[in-house]
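Annex B. Sample input.
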Amino acid sequence: MNEKITAKEVRVITDDGENLGVIKTSEARAIALEKGLDLVLISPDQKPPVAKILDYGKFKFESDKKAKEARKKQHTVDLKEIKMRYKIDVHDYNVRLKNSKRFLNEGNKVKVLVMLKGREAQHTHLAFDLLNRFLSDMDGQYVLDKTPSNEGKNVSMILAPSGTNNPV
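Annex B, continued. Sample output.
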């Protein structure tokens, strides 16, 4: 910007978009100073570099505003966790099913975890049956991101929203 431009010549574009052509940097600075604006390098890698005459404060404000809007529209995918035991009651099961559908509709991934305690760890087939029932009750609103697998005393699977292209 202004005195920090080291190139001898620059291609100058005015604040109203008019191309002044390639001129000396000192002349371009003088034109910008005359208009009460700044000379800002837009494309320093070009031969010769491209500089624009503009109000730097306004330019910075607008670029920050655009970046903020882009961050607002951006959605990060979170991994929500649903925990249950294989001896779960029907109402509790339905609550967890409803919550996982809500999480998937919001665009998040869901990790469904069936915890096994003590001697229950010998009956992992019951946990796998529960997860398969959970999958069938989801009505195809998901993509299976990680198939049901045994992780120590837990059996888990990960579901992703059906809009994403995740491999099974």
